[in-house]
Write a structure and sequence with these properties.
The protein is of the alpha+beta class and 349 residues long. It has ten helices and seven strands. A five-stranded mixed beta barrel has the order 2-3-4-7-6. About 7% of the residues have low confidence. It has three domains: 31 residues; 211 residues, OB fold (Dihydrolipoamide Acetyltransferase, E2P), CATH 2.40.50; 33 residues. Strand 6 and strand 7 form a beta hairpin.
Length: 349
Amino acid sequence: MQFQKNSSPTPYLNRRDQYRMMGLLGVLFLVVISIDYTRKPENWAWFFSLDKKQSDSELKEYSLDDLDFRVKEPEHGSLPADTFVVVSDPATTIDLDELGFDVAQIPPELLEDVQDKRVGLLRIEQDAMDRVLKRVRALKQSELENAATHDVGFRVVFTDAEKHRGQLIAVEGTLWRFQKYPFGDPETETDDLWQAWFFSSDSGNNPWVVFLTEKPDELTPGSGLSLNRKISLAGYFFKNYGYATEEGLHIAPMLIAKTLTLKPIPATADTKTENLSLYIFLILMTIGLLFGIMTWWFVRSDRKFNNSHLAEIAASRHEAPPEFISSLADQPTNDPNQLVLPTTEKEKQ
């Protein structure tokens, strides 16, 4: 007679069961890590390319709330709010040589008469304005864009206007208002400018204002959500420009530029949504496939165990022998309601 020796350990010490528990813990750990990762908005920025950081040259010690947007009162005389005086002098001639050869900077001495935090454009600023416009009209848009500085933001020019006056800077933002601006000879419109208001990523609810010598072909005058286009431009910083609002006088950094570039309307939004859906679908399919494989492996392991000799031994240990069950019939029985508990020490003994 041949007996089979059972060398397998009990189920809770079985190596396969231990691997199964480790696998389940690993899946649980993966789920917890996935939940913690996906709950953070910054971890989804790479889907939409939103993780653009501000330049290190920003004046981080100033917040927008700390800036003083009050307009200076004129020393002599006054004008009603949001009015200005611009006088065209036909005899004024500007030689490009006096502007220098540095495209990125208008010589500061040519802009000494510019006054910050005053409402509108002042008569004393006429010559300085004409010099900058002369430079802008003489250069190509590509030359301006290539020479512009990209690391100067809203707070920088606002808090240190004298240092950056006349500097050619590149700015990106969202267009909010676009309108024609009468300038120069009132008898003709050939020298009129275009005025655009826009918000940059670092300006909060405070706009920039830019005066353009050329109108973008695809842009029509308007304001508000009728525009709401992403733009980029390269312009010379001229002054902190005072203007009237419903809440009183306010200040905006003023640029003078040739034109602005309208960025394409993001038709890629649908593509990004499709790509995002594709990524999510692939991730869910991978997780589902992983759980499917693990479930199949567990079922296969269970079936293999049920067909093994170890399963028979385990099942036999859960069943009581017949003689043990029959012996229970000979045991005396008592009615719990008729039991009297001892109350004294003698009765207990």
